[in-house]
Amino acid sequence: MPALAIHRGEPAVTALLRMARRHTNSRVRRDALFWVAQKAGQRAAAAITEAIDNDPDQDVKKRAVFALSRLTSDESVRLLIQVARNNRNREVRRQAIFEEPREPRRRIEQEGGCNAGKW
Prior knowledge:
Number of strands: 0
Radius of gyration: 14 Å
Distance between the termini: 34 Å
CATH architecture: Alpha Horseshoe
Mean pLDDT: 81
Shape: globular
């Protein structure tokens, strides 16, 4: 997959997005999420949040949270806060808090913590 990630252009991004969403192997999905965050930036946010919400594999969900934290924008911080507050999976919520320890944690604390205090 790193070989695909070094290619420039839309075909590489499209292939990575397809793997992140549809590949049957969870390890491939997990790795594709990392690389799509590196290559596609904010365009990757939809695929990443889709994996956080819908992938059946917890490790894929956690890698998706990591990938989301690598995106550099206020939107990614907002999405991390949303995951930390609302995701049903406790480990995924924790991952969202600790991936980007300064900004999301500070903002969550300022805004009154997470949903029902379920860390």
